[in-house]
């Protein structure tokens, strides 16, 4: 007789588009930093839904706000005002220094909007030939058409080409190449301050300086993709400021709704002034439920959350460096705050991810050979130590 888990997997196999290589467990509930399967076995979640469950699972404050809003009013469309979009925009402006926001439903949608708004900016200024985009090797910005066009990994791009024209990729280790690529025909540079899917690669100070110089020299707009590294993940509201970048546009998603889908585009007043009514829109974007969830997240982040990430990130980093000294298969430890990666061979990374799962720790691979960790921003010291002990045991095996 088939188990409940097998029945769930069989229904998916029959009816869902098979674009995900799922881990063969079925998760049914969560609490804090743990999720539970159909047999109620706990898994320590060091992935948090790829950085989405920023407050952990079943957060009481978030659950209460979502339930209350569901009983009150979920959606009005953007034909009308509601109380929460303005509040959320004001809070994000104070944190980012970018005074205008557009709300959507995901990080990929946020990237799409950033690309549109960058082109619209130059069109409004009469420089209609200024349409090129410079992106980085190792980048990942999403799977919708424009976002995919600025995503570097060839295996993601090849089946859907030709993509958007006028996108050039430069190495994030070559500041001179960036300087050469950015001319008066470039609308925007798009980058992740820490490249997530590309292998948890922080941008070097030298490259950041080259980006700043290129933008100052040509007036090119800077789009910061803070979908994975932003919103407290590295111990700061946005990692751009930490490394000295000054974006004109910023794409947000993942952590913002703490599990409720929401994305946001933040922008300078200069960019906002170039946008006209009707240039962009969304049916679901900025609905009451999503905005209220985001406000709960920001409350938690601003009232002790960032301090907690700094402490937890230091503890996690020290533990991972200690693992690297004991296990030579680890060739590099990268990241910031609670966004960390262990580089090793592809075979070793696969075995570590599988071994961690067997010990009921959830991590995943990025860029083939990096074991990536994105625990909830609320993870405790004891949970960090538990995760490190499991990784130590798996590496020892």
Task: Explain what the structure shows.
With 397 residues, the protein is an alpha/beta fold. It has two domains: 4-59 and 312-396, Alpha-Beta Complex (Aspartate Aminotransferase, domain 1); 62-300, Type I PLP-dependent aspartate aminotransferase-like (Major domain) (Aspartate Aminotransferase, domain 2), CATH 3.40.640. The chain is 43% helix and 18% strand. The chain contains 14 helices and 17 strands. The chain has helices at residues 4-15, 48-51, 60-72, 83-96, 107-124, 145-149, 154-157, 175-181, 205-218, 239-243, 269-273, 288-326, 346-358, 381-396, and strands at residues 27-31, 34-37, 42-45, 100-104, 132-136, 167-170, 186-191, 194-195, 201-202, 221-225, 249-252, 263-267, 332-336, 339-343, 361-362, 364-366, 370-373. It has a seven-stranded mixed sheet, with helices on both faces. Strands 1-2-3-15 form a four-stranded mixed sheet. The chain has a four-stranded antiparallel sheet with strand order 13-14-17-16. A hairpin with a 2-residue loop joins strand 13 (332-336) and strand 14 (339-343). Helix 3 (60-72) packs antiparallel against helix 12, helix 8 runs parallel beside helix 9 and helix 12 crosses helix 14. The mean pLDDT is 97.
**Sheet having the most strands:** 7 strands, mixed
Low-pLDDT segments: none
**Which CATH-level-2 architecture of the largest domain?**
3-Layer(aba) Sandwich
pLDDT averaged residue by residue? 97
The CATH H-level homologous superfamily of the largest domain: Type I PLP-dependent aspartate aminotransferase-like (Major domain)
How many DSSP helices?
14
The CATH topology of the largest domain comes to: Aspartate Aminotransferase, domain 2
The tally of structural domains comes to 2
> In CATH, what is the class of the largest domain?
Alpha Beta
| Share of β-strand residues | 15-25%
Overall geometry comes to globular
Overall helicity: 40-55%
Q: What would you report as the Rg, rounded to the nearest angstrom?
A: 21 Å
- Strand order in the largest sheet: 4-12-11-10-7-5-6
Structural class: alpha/beta
